[in-house]
Amino acid sequence: MRRRDFIRMVGSAAATWPFVAHAQQRERLRRVAVLEPIARNTPSAQARYTAFLQAFEQLGWTDGRNVQIVARWSGGNHAETRKYAEELVALAPDVILAGGGTGAEVMLKATRTIPIVFAIVPDPVGRAAWKEATVWLTKPCRV
Fold it and tell me: What distance in Å separates the CA atoms of residue 101 and residue 99, rounded to the nearest whole number?
């Protein structure tokens, strides 16, 4: 499976769009980093993360079997969000899922080489931080 296909699948799982995909078994364990700038123990956070994991399973990806999912939750603490972003980038994941505008902006500042899928970002085009990334986001990804 090509890296571009894997990134597309992460985006679909994050949005919990149902579609059929058959993942091939790989010797190398894929790594997905998740950065959520909210508290893990809130009902809405748990519901979103559970939906993400279930959608991933439906697509054939099981945490610990053929993919490693590493999640960090900062509970709204901006310093922790930045710290966790750097920590996740250091793990060199195949793709990063960033929740909310804060998580996505911090991840864009932390890396320009790891693909970032973001969810729940109001008006991403209108945000000033995205204008800087427009050229980077519109370049074709070579794998």
Answer: 7
Q: What pTM was estimated for this model as a whole?
A: 0.69
Contact 13, 116 (CB under 8 A): no
Q: Helix (H, G, I), strand (E, B), or coil: what is residue 70?
A: strand
**CB of 68 within 8 A of CB of 61?**
no
Cβ neighbourhood burial of 128 (10 Å; 0-12, 13-18, 19+): exposed
Q: How far apart are CA 88 and CA 94, in angstroms?
A: 11
Q: How far apart are CA 80 and CA 70, in angstroms?
A: 16
Say if residues 124 and 103 touch (Cβ distance below 8 Å).
Answer: no
Q: What is the pLDDT along the chain (143 residues), one digit of tens a residue?
A: 666 676 666 666 665 444 444 445 445 789 999 999 888 898 988 888 998 899 989 999 999 899 999 999 998 899 999 999 999 999 999 999 988 778 888 888 898 889 888 877 666 666 555 555 544 444 444 44
Q: Which amino acid is at 132?
A: E
